[in-house]
Amino acid sequence: xxxxxxxxxxxxxxxxxxxxxxxxxxxxxxxxxxxxxxxxxxxxxxxxxxxxxxxxxxxxxxxxxxxxxxxxxxxxxxxxxxxxxxxxxxxxxxxxxxxxxxxxxxxx
Length: 108
What we know:
It is built from five helices and no strands. It is mostly helical.
């Protein structure tokens, strides 16, 4: 991970955090969709760290992450937890970092 730029390292850390905030409650609550969402985040992080189409992965991660927020609002419907609030804050920061990474870089 040391070969990644600081922004990229931050993105990977945020992705891993949101992955585990999905996997853990998904296992505890017996909610396979949460586990699958978390595994999707981990899979994306693994591919990114392996150098597989990084810009495309980052671009795909924007809507993948963004859709989690309204789904959480709808599915939890007022039954929110601290873990959920932390996860959504992490996801908002992650989306911002991904936007900077994908669209804020100069084109070579």
